[in-house]
Write a structure and sequence with these properties.
This protein starts with 6 loop residues before the first strand and ends with a strand. The protein has a five-stranded antiparallel sheet. It has a single domain (about 5-69), classed as Beta Barrel (OB fold (Dihydrolipoamide Acetyltransferase, E2P)), CATH 2.40.50.100. A hairpin with a 3-residue loop joins strand 2 and strand 3 (about 35-40). The longest helix is centred in the middle third of the chain and has 7 residues, at about 40-45. It has about 70 residues and is mainly β. It has one helix spanning about 40-45; strands at about 5-20, 20-30, 35-40, 55-60, 65-69.
Amino acid sequence: MKVGARNRIVGKVTEIKKGKLMCLVKLEIPARSRMASVMTIESLDELGLKKGNQVEVVVKAVNVLLIRG
């Protein structure tokens, strides 16, 4: 997937908290820092994210997007 964001960081999924429509995906990134992303359950399922997965964290403005693969 091509995106215009230039801020990309490799991270690891450490926790997923699911609600009815949305979920919170917590990540550990280099330098032992942490980030999180909120997304729909549908997006979580489409990405197939699970605890322990390595993802690419794409940061643009106030959005944090996750890309698996």
